[in-house]
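tool=predict chain=A
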Amino acid sequence: MKVIADIEVCVAAGVCAAIAPAVFDQDDEVGKVILLDANPGDDQLDAVRDAVLSCPSAALRLVE
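tool=predict ok
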């Protein structure tokens, strides 16, 4: 699986970092998404899917 994060679309809601903190973080200055792991393991799949679906700006994509 590959995760794609578009920081231009991100609205800094922080939902992704709350749902999948091993994969997403937030920039300290502006709060935009930081992708910690673009290729997370299968053990993170459910959390990443939830984060992608919960993103209010649709800034995240999952390629399986």
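The longest strand covers residues 2-5. Residues 45-54 form the longest helix (10 residues).
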